Amino acid sequence: MFTEEDRRYLLEIAHRSLIEAAAGRRYQPEGPHPDHLMAPAAAFVTLWKRDGALRGCIGQVEAVMPLISSIARMAYAASQEDPRFPPVLPAEVPELRVDISVLTPPEPLDPEAVEVGTHGLIVEQGLRRGLLLPQVASEHGWDSETFLDHTCLKAGLPRGAWRDPSTRILGFTAEVFGDDEH
Questions:
Q1: Domain range holding 79?
Q2: What are phi and psi of 85, to 5 degrees?
Q3: For residue range 74-99, what is the model confidence (pLDDT) as tens digits?
């Protein structure tokens, strides 16, 4: 979907946003930008420490803003607003590795159709909602049922809640790329 040049460009935007966020500022990339990167798109930005530990991950599932803006906003949010971590400090920025996941629109998915490494999942029941990106199951070596169970846990639901008829399962795919590829 994205060329190598597109990927480098988007990663540059994410890194610039991290630098500005750590300094207490928001970054809005100035144009002109390639038209295809201005199309609305849903994206997640994940931050990793050099030792492989997660440092932040925030995204949006709905394509409500241009991809360029989404990457800048999600990089800011991953570094400053992830409730699991304190805000990223300026000294940390050079040590962080960035991954970007650009998502397809979620669609209803039968549990039997879940493909580990291909699908990301959203599990919804009542007001509870959990999301795991496609790469999470592969990184942990999970099978599809374990992936569904962990998505339920992320939603604050018990394992196996995906079997309940009142639970809605949505799937999506993502183009994932990051600093390790460059």
A1: 4-103
A2: -135, 155
A3: 999 999 999 999 999 999 999 999 99
